[in-house]
TrEMBL record:
The keyword Transport does not apply. Belongs to the dTDP-4-dehydrorhamnose reductase family. This is dTDP-4-dehydrorhamnose reductase. InterPro entries: dTDP_dehydrorham_reduct, NAD(P)-bd_dom_sf, RmlD-like-bd. The lineage of its organism: Bacteria, Bacillati, Bacillota, Clostridia, Eubacteriales. One of its GO terms (biological process) is dTDP-rhamnose biosynthetic process. Residues 1-277 form the RmlD-like substrate binding domain. Its EC number is 1.1.1.133. Pfam families: RmlD_sub_bind. One of its GO terms (molecular function) is dTDP-4-dehydrorhamnose reductase activity. The gene is rmlD. PANTHER family: DTDP-4-DEHYDRORHAMNOSE REDUCTASE, METHIONINE ADENOSYLTRANSFERASE 2 SUBUNIT BETA. It comes from Pelotomaculum schinkii. Pathway: Carbohydrate biosynthesis; dTDP-L-rhamnose biosynthesis.
Length: 280
């Protein structure tokens, strides 16, 4: 089996690559210079030369606030890039796994979002990711669009590491308590992606760790597991004005992933414990 992983230097890309290597696959990890997903001729040439069974697209423009000022760049990477990958995958009869986000929703729902709920992003980042999703579906072929949220894991900048670092420097923290979502461990997500790909049940999915919390609740769990006595105070989103609006509720309902791969991901708090204690 041949697998190309784009964005392989990121948290999720590294875990996906590791799993496929452990399974004996030939894994290709092109750098941005070697494979610029916004260059269609380069994308098609690479895929023709390698002939991958699967392409996992973990490459993305992820600066939510920066996207407000760099709209064209966000849409180029998050929208046009997936379109080019989908076109090349269809040409080469490869499967495309495209990673999307909870930020395609506006956050006004009172319950977790289903895969069939209507997206309505409230920031440029979310709009660019939605554009990418639409492009992949429009082109068709063998594809998975996987929405996930609040990623954390080894070897990458994330909320867990940020809170851990801040707690070493400060006795007191203020963390937003009116945004809720599902923290998702890249180790667990990568396994689910590999298993989902093996199912060949193509389509759109929500995959996160089970349960949900606020950033405040997330921070408290991190500090508890890490053994810090740092005081954490809840605050409102309005207390920390940012260029990009954030959805207040971006919890994703995982239906029907269990029907396809046979399980749901472990509870998010269990994942935090495994991450901080160095166990998978």
């Amino acid at each position: 089996m041949k697998v190309i992983v784009t964005g392989a230097t990121g948290m999720l890309g590294k875990q996906v690559a590791r799993l496929y290597k452990e399974q004996g696959a030939d894994v290709y990890l092109p750098s941005h210079k070697e494979l610029d997903i916004t260059n269609y001729n380069q994308v098609l040439s690479i895929l023709k030369n390698i002939g991958p069974d699967t392409v996992v697209n973990c490459a993305a423009y992820t600066d939510v606030d920066g996207a407000e000022q760099e709209q064209e760049k966000a849409f180029l990477v998050n929208g046009l890039g997936p379109r080019f990958l989908a076109l090349a995958c269809r040409h080469c009869e490869s499967t495309l796994i495209h990673i999307s986000t909870d930020y395609i929703f506006n956050g006004e729902a009172k319950q977790p979002y289903q895969i069939y709920d209507t997206p309505c992003p409230i920031n440029i980042y979310g709009a660019s990711k939605l554009f990418g999703e639409a492009a992949v579906r429009e082109i068709g072929g063998k594809f998975f669009v996987v929405r996930t949220s609040w990623l954390f894991g080894p070897e990458g900048k994330n909320f867990v590491d940020t809170i851990y670092s801040m707690a070493q420097q400060k006795d007191e923290l203020k963390v937003v308590n009116d945004q809720q979502g599902a923290p998702t461990y890249t180790v667990d997500l990568a396994k689910a992606l590999v298993d989902l790909n093996a199912s060949h049940v193509y389509g759109t999915y929500h995959i996160t760790n089970t349960g949900y919390t606020t950033w405040y609740g997330f921070a408290k769990k991190i500090l508890k597991v890490a053994g810090f006595k740092t005081l954490v105070n809840p605050c409102a989103t309005k207390d920390f004005p940012r260029p990009a609006a954030r959805p207040h509720n971006s919890v994703l309902n995982p239906f029907p992933i269990e029907k396809v791969i046979g399980y749901t991901l472990p509870d998010w708090d269990n994942a935090v414990e495994r991450h901080l204690q160095g166990t998978v």
